Batch of 3 targets.
Target 1
Amino acid sequence: DETMERAARIAGGGSLVVVKVSKPRQDMRFDVPVVGLQTVEVMQRCRVSALAMDAGRTLLFDRARVIEVADAAGITIEAFPPEAIGEAEGLAPQGRP
């Protein structure tokens, strides 16, 4: 949330696109990217027009309500496979050393 709020201040009121992905080698047992209703409320406040996220690596809480609120606010949410977003070159896939 703080990152979006900082970006909104830097953008000076312009529209933002947010990309939420896991870090290379992120331990998904303990630190999973999450999107929920609070995330969408912050996106509204920060004038976010779209959210791209890791498919299969991001938890989406209260899915129906998140989609409903995002749709009403004109926010597009799209999940992409990690290879579509871009993996860091030379790093092992998740869960492998």
Target 2
Amino acid sequence: MAYNPEIADRVRAIIEAAGAVEQKRMMGSLAFMVDGKMAVGVSGDEVFFPVGGGEALDIALQQGAHRLQLKSGVDVPFAALTDPDDDTLAEWIGDAVARARGE
């Protein structure tokens, strides 16, 4: 599924304030890389975040995210948001950038 360019623009506007960010197209999605690690991705109308498994994913799900579903059915430790407001998006992106930087 291709990514929604309007959502990608919203993510880009927030994440570029964090400094050096590289964008990579991956299987129809757009990934935003920080220090060589994926911080945020956009696929279709969803914004997704690698959160790790276990408790981190459970916490993300309790905060309104849902598990990212791959077409292949492979289970991945990514949380996804659909149509988040700007404040929620900024908060999640800030956390994702910190995780990518190991903070």
Target 3
Amino acid sequence: MFPRLRAQGPTVLIPLAWAVVGLAHLDVVSDRAVLIFHVVAAVLIAAFAALSWDEMETDVLRVWRDILLVGLLLTVGGIVGLLVVQLRDPFLTTTILGWMVVPGIGLYYTGKRVVTGQRAYTAGAVLSVLGAAVYAGGLFPATNAALLAGIGLALVGQTVGIAQAVRQPRETPSG
């Protein structure tokens, strides 16, 4: 059961994470709930990385292992931002933008390295990075519609990418 959960869990967890971010922007979920979600996410990311470390030693999977490590740092930064009021805005903004851009880069790289699913990975990359651009543009001045649109783009893009990865878990690189 655990290998299956490890392989397919991200297809639920990634869109769930972005949904929580969107709901937090709408003040539907409390800061405490967002903090708990960040702590749980950090534990899950660390556990996934530790349990998958040896399987993620080469090529595309090595890039995703690095993305998990950067993502863990981003998530811990989000925890700090939620706990230290003076750091809230810069740390949470960095966490959100980082989680949009870093997986976007990974999806782009993956799309260039695999034979099957190149379009899905590339589309996911474009949507994720476009989401970051829309979100960043919505910060100055703060526009909830733009922030939510950016979150939505990242949600769709990263969900497309992880769904492709689950469909093609043992893809061999093309180059």
